[in-house]
Amino acid sequence: MGAALSSSIIHWGKVGEVISGIFLSILLSGIAGFLIQRAFRGAIGGNAQDPRRVRLHGPWIAGLMMTWLTWFMLLKGLKAVPAVGTVKDYTIGTYGAFPFLIGLWMFYFFVFIVILMSTKDRGSRYLFHGMSILGMLCMAFAFGQNDLANCASPGLSTIWLWRHADEAVSVASKIPIPHWTLFSCGILIVLGMRTRNAQRVTRAEVNTGSQFDHVALWAPNWCRALARLFLKEAPTGPALVPPPSTTETGKHIHYDTLRASVVMAVSASVIAFASGRGLPVSTTYVAFAAVVATGWGDRVFHRGDADLKVGRAIWVVIGWFLAALIAVVAGIVVAMVILKLGLLGVGIALAANLIVRTYFKKRADTHELRYHVSQEHSGDTLPEVAVQGETD
């Protein structure tokens, strides 16, 4: 957007559509995550592996999850695939959306009844384990759809326009992107997700919505003060999540399987729906909204380091707006430098990018080390939690 502003070629209608899509996707993920988690938690209770409750409520809950995943992932997210379009014509096109969804839910309902009856306690114990894994796979697919477009399209489109400058004006809205280039960019995304910075972001997101009372997080003092004011006015009640626990190897279990299933399914559905409508939403924002919303649904912010968790959420949301503003300004500056100086400007922009990235990476690493060292010597947060936060 910043580069487009510098050239006065921005399409404000499309910008408004994308921005509204981002805000609506966050809002939808948050509202859906809260309401669904509260309803499912009320049915299942604090133990998502209790055989009696899972046999009673598991089929309709898992059936609902499968129904909306089928609807959003296949019929909305993959509506451009010919085979999916054919199925949609023979089902929704013939019977209507509502009867089709009711019928699909009843089908899944009876399937899960048969599964639980045939597997007995073992199936009840691992039903939501399986649903969370399935939701994770759907979420990965949805992320691939949207994140790949977000990160790869600008660069690949720029290269194509550079090579076809003479015909760019007439076909700029329909640029052919070879599949092998998207595959290559997908590999780079996977490699990037394995870096320490990516793991740090994931760890912070998980800890923000953790069911543990004390977590290894950082938030500015003014954000924590705002959080305390908010929590003072918020309705209170006992936490609905199971007691904090760890695995046999000492890893913290930040979410139980029911909440993990809801987070995965809601995030995947919202992102797939946005992808089907051609909206490049932020998958990270959507997932974070689902994590925080399901946390509110389970009342994990009513005890322990509640002000720290909510303060971190406030800081993250503010960071979204700051990042967008910085990106626009930086895009304008870089575009003007390249426009005025040509290849020299490209070299200057690359050098500036490297310097800025190196500087802020060192600052982030120093802050991370200093913070966790201070946590180890502080009585506010349990030392083992701070250390465990590095490996969870």
Question: What is the topological layout?
Answer:
Elements: H1 2-7, H2 12-44, H3 51-76, H4 82-95, H5 97-163, H6 168-171, H7 179-193, H8 196-208, H9 221-233, E1 245-246, E2 252-253, H10 257-276, H11 283-297, H12 306-341, H13 343-376, H14 383-389
Antiparallel strand pairs: 1-2
Detailed description of the structure:
With 392 residues, this protein is mostly helical. The chain has one domain (22-332). It has helices at residues 2-7, 12-44, 51-76, 82-95, 97-163, 168-171, 179-193, 196-208, 221-233, 257-276, 283-297, 306-341, 343-376, 383-389, and strands at 245-246, 252-253.
Shape category: globular
Output the radius of gyration.
23 Å
Instruction: Please count the helical segments.
Output: 14
User: What helical percentage do the residues reach?
Assistant: over 70%
* Largest sheet report: 2 strands, antiparallel
What is the strand content?
Answer: under 5%
Task: Report the uncertain regions.
Answer: 379-392
Q: Report the average pLDDT across residues.
A: 81
Structural class per helix/strand content?
A: mainly alpha
Sum up the structure in keywords.
14 helices, 1% strand, mainly alpha, 392 residues, single chain, two-stranded antiparallel ribbon, disordered C terminus
Provide a brief overview of the structure.
The protein is built from 14 helices and two strands. The chain has helices spanning 2-7, 12-44, 51-76, 82-95, 97-163, 168-171, 179-193, 196-208, 221-233, 257-276, 283-297, 306-341, 343-376, 383-389; strands spanning 245-246, 252-253. It is globular.
